[in-house]
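Exercise 7. Predict the joint structure of the components listed below.
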Amino acid sequence: MSNQTKFILSEQDIPEKWYNITADMPNKPLPPLHPATHEPIGPDALAPLFPMGLIEQEVTSDAWVEIPEEVRDIYKVWRPTPLYRAHRLEKALDTPAKIYYKYEGVSPAGSHKPNTAVPQAYYNMKEGVTRITTETGAGQWGSALAFACNLFGIHCEVYMVRISYDQKPYRKLMMNTWGADVYPSPSDRTHAGRQILAQDAASPGSLGIAISEAVEIAATHDDTKYSLGSVLNHVLLHQTVIGQEALKQMEMAGDFPDIIIAPFGGGSNFAGISFPFLRHKLVEGKKLRAIAVEPTSCPKLTRGVFRYDFGDTVGMTPLLPMYTLGHTFIPAKIHAGGLRYHGAGVIVSQLLKDNIIEAVAVDQLETFEAGVLFAKTEGIIPAPEANYGIAQALREAQIAKEEGVAKTILFNLCGHGNFDMASYDAYFSGRLQKHEMTQQEIEAALALIDTPAIPA
Amino acid sequence: MSNQTKFILSEQDIPEKWYNITADMPNKPLPPLHPATHEPIGPDALAPLFPMGLIEQEVTSDAWVEIPEEVRDIYKVWRPTPLYRAHRLEKALDTPAKIYYKYEGVSPAGSHKPNTAVPQAYYNMKEGVTRITTETGAGQWGSALAFACNLFGIHCEVYMVRISYDQKPYRKLMMNTWGADVYPSPSDRTHAGRQILAQDAASPGSLGIAISEAVEIAATHDDTKYSLGSVLNHVLLHQTVIGQEALKQMEMAGDFPDIIIAPFGGGSNFAGISFPFLRHKLVEGKKLRAIAVEPTSCPKLTRGVFRYDFGDTVGMTPLLPMYTLGHTFIPAKIHAGGLRYHGAGVIVSQLLKDNIIEAVAVDQLETFEAGVLFAKTEGIIPAPEANYGIAQALREAQIAKEEGVAKTILFNLCGHGNFDMASYDAYFSGRLQKHEMTQQEIEAALALIDTPAIPA
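Solution:
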């Protein structure tokens, strides 16, 4: 057993249900509020943006939601994904810790994102939607949705954060290959985009702005819906296939994690790997630390506030109860474009508020150092986002070494870095800088927030 | 069964031996000749370039060669690779043919090349070699060797064909991440490179030139050996792990191929998938067509001559009996850099001469069309090299449709196109052209050959 490197499941092991953690949470998430009236809204308010199949999943209190056969059929293209024991990394660290990682980079789009892109496209197709708009930061999500839409014959329109659009032309081409149209955001195609460009014609964009643009198009066209790659409950739900498979694979390894680690942007990566394990903590009281890792340049979990805020920059979405740095916050241009979102998903925010999970912020220089060590020992070059999880795993392995305890660490390697080599180039050539926000910058960001507080 | 998409093996199914087809060939390959004397050479003549462990494999007549445990241990990072039934592609083609593909793009370097890079680095490490030089065309081979050398603590020095070096900066960065040094070829670091640059300072380079440079460095430094990513017997040997796994997976599918297809550069891709199946043809008389697919711009198998020729441009290697367009031939700058080699491996050449296998040439425009259809139906964006195999699979599926026969087709999807999106861009924007050589061009190339003929 100790010699085994890779734990492989068969097609029959692809989960048949998604796991909804809200069913087992001691405190349920608070309801979203209407952006204008600040009154709680029901499912119907989401109908202009999402098909009913997804809205039902967004609000369901069922613990398990069945995965349609057509979706499982496409999951077979890359699922089940492998789970690895990181023997060579452990050796390099000289740690007694046992390090495992689940590798989601084997999907066609190269990350965990297709796990939710496929069901989202599926439910839209079922309800006759012919076009889906979305935003993308690093490009992982846009690629995943382009891939999924193509398989169901839906036209896909992607608003790509300007800085990523310029830095990653190959991501754009990947989306084009699958038939999607890609626009740099802010664009002149929407009112929201034109508004931002009027203030700053050279705006590098942000995920919040791109969301505003994609939402606007969907809200103003009957044949078009919108799709989000993280944050929302149904997105986190779909990602739980990762953790369910990992549970089986850890069982194959005869092990159970003491610590689960994942990078944190909006929460889907973290939820995907951790929720099926957290179920055992919530239901059976099993001991388990789950750690979300965010950039020091966008520290909403560790330095933001827990209150109602918009999901987009302009303020078109419902108000969501979440950890946030403010919906107008635009983080520094670090090289992990995907973790530059101002807020955190509602479920994860509530779990953090209730101390069921932990959060930590890591600087990008430390993450690239960790990623290069990983590439040199385990062979896989990770996406810059994934390096955040690796960096924290290295910290925990170091603590285990100092304490002399053989802890079991599991992290989610959410994607490969094949489209991010320019970031590695920037790191190698010394062009990357530390990006820790000062207390003053944090206070200035939070002072701008004018949305409702959470009721006591 | 018919519903199954992916046939997955476990770590225990990684082959324990490589298969050497020369043991079962009716006519054995002719011996290599000394470049100056034209006399047959023995294994010792290769000692300046290769470690004895690999030379033994180059000349062995054993049918099976044991895979060292240390090599199998690293194979576990990505092997066994999946074998797919291309349900969605079949449907799009409306063909009665059953199409299967073995997917080698799941390796860290993204292609089948690490299958031989790892054992090559291993045997060099065992004999105390501290530096390995090599050439790379498309970059797949250089990446694979950089990956493998890093794991065994060997310094890797890559001569990268100039045109690829300029077109694919991210490939270079991938090699850098694994610790390799990469130089554009022709370079001023070698006598061979300086000689070419003196004739043409803007030379786009070729695989033959890059080989000359890498060989020169190895031949003139005691601590340095050379490594080749295709053509040679031991390279083809290592790749047979692909076909051995595929044999088991086709058995899981309850099927056996009527036709096996693979792209052809030097022969390792083709050998890897086909030799373990061809064994059943050679030993048991099983019916099977194996088709090597080359570019119309570099048609050594279909329009070249079978005679002795050098492996490199300058003429430093032994003379090998092979199909060739002449060692000074430099093919057009098509976008599948990896298939631009002037000659074919000795074993494959003999098999073709004896009509045991077939060869066909396809134009790059047809291959990209096939690759985009594949990406849209099966989800994976193939390497441009891999598109040659897909294009031929589509031709055969079309014939099956016309004949109304449910033929079983298996092809090797040797790598993903994540680093080749610029080629897709060129295709989408209409910048790629047909590159069929004229009869005059072929004759002009062959007229330059001054190496010995094959004895009758």
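Discussion. Chain A has 17 helices and 15 strands.
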